[in-house]
Amino acid sequence: MVQAAIIGLAGQRLSDAERDLFAALPPAGVILFARNIDNPAQLAALMADLDAALPPGAARMIDQEGGRVARLRPPHWPAHPPAARLGAMHAKNPEAGRRAAFLSGALIGLDCAEAGFTVTTAPVLDVAVPGAHAIIGDRAFSASPRVVAELGAAFAAGLWAAGVQPMAKHMPGHGRAMADSHLALPRLDDVAASDLMPFRVNAMLPWGMTAHIVYAARDPALPATLSRPVITGVIRDEIGFDGVLVTDDLGMHALSGPMAARARDAIAAGCDLALHCSGEIADSEAVLRAAGAVSPATAARLDAAALSLRGRRQPLGRAGMAEERAALLRQAGLGDD
Among 64, 105, 176, 194, whose CB has the most other CB atoms within 10 angstroms? Predict the structure, then answer.
């Protein structure tokens, strides 16, 4: 049975221990990071090993937003501008900003699809808030919820056009947090309507990621990832999201307790899949065991996510798109990465 978890790998090759773990407890997918990627030939060999070791249809996920969050990097892969630069273009010329966001999504999507990835953890739909912690910062398109919604939709359309499934993050909104959830547990009084608006507009995206944030008015004790009131009441009902809901990395310091308990509690709260990224084999095994088998509802959502590409893929000319995006950014006086 496929387990309701996505896990990271330790290195640039699939180890014997990882092969054995996948055979015993097949994950719903894997996520790769910079530590797993050196060059295209090495990555292709790793992907071939994963094809042989993973169950059919397992997700191959990468955190590739553009800007500072990019695992495919120069010199082997092109750099892409952060979301905030696209937002700055939109402020000068909304139509050009939307076009540049689509092109960025498509170019990032082509990089990912050609490397063998099926899911990209983007777009970030968090709203930038002055004075908040910089962990979101220029990863957000704008301080305007409407602009975030527009550019997020355009960016996701570009990913889809390149043949990659997009993921909305971080539900139900990380932009106002005053702490980095990689290091500590942020607390907010409540979810703001401005936080929810971009997610509502993009509720049809096939994947979503939770935020490790306490929204005290909804659940005074537990962060969204572990909170049924937030997942059911806010993410599923208020936002209207019915796609595959994956946790943010369970290894982040916003959470506490054994990894098995974190995975079990996230699934019990309503997440579809537990995400564990470190590649540490004992923790990966604990998460896979605790998450349990993929439920029928999650299996249906995974099938729908894969089908979301139908009719969206387009023949895309990489060079022409890159030139067009660069020209748009230069015209706005913003430059290109």
Answer: 105
Residue 172 in contact with residue 235, Cβ under 8 Å? yes
Q: What is the pLDDT of residues 269-326, one digit of tens each?
A: 999 999 999 999 999 999 999 999 999 999 999 999 999 998 888 888 888 888 999 8
Q: Indicate the domain borders of the chain.
A: 61-225+237-256+317-331
Active site residue 182: yes
253 catalytic residue (yes or no): no
Place of tokens 């894997």: 30
CATH, range 61-225+237-256+317-331: 3.20.20.300
What is the maximum alpha-carbon separation in the chain?
55
Is 121 in contact with 159 (CB distance < 8 Å)? no
Neighbour-count burial for 8-31, b at 16+ CB within 10 Å, e otherwise:
bbbeeebeeebeebbeebbbbbbb
Among 111, 138, 248, 265, the one annotated catalytic: 248
3-class secondary structure, 128: coil
| Global confidence as pTM | 0.96
Give the CA count within 13 Å in the CB-facing half-sphere of 275: 24
Q: Which tens digit of pLDDT belongs to each residue from 189-209?
A: 999 999 999 999 999 999 999
Q: Which of 38, 182, 237, 253 is catalytic?
A: 182
Nearest to 267 by CA among 234, 298, 310, 303: 298
Rounded distance, CA 146 to CA 312, Å? 24
Predicted local distance difference test score (pLDDT) of residue 105? 96
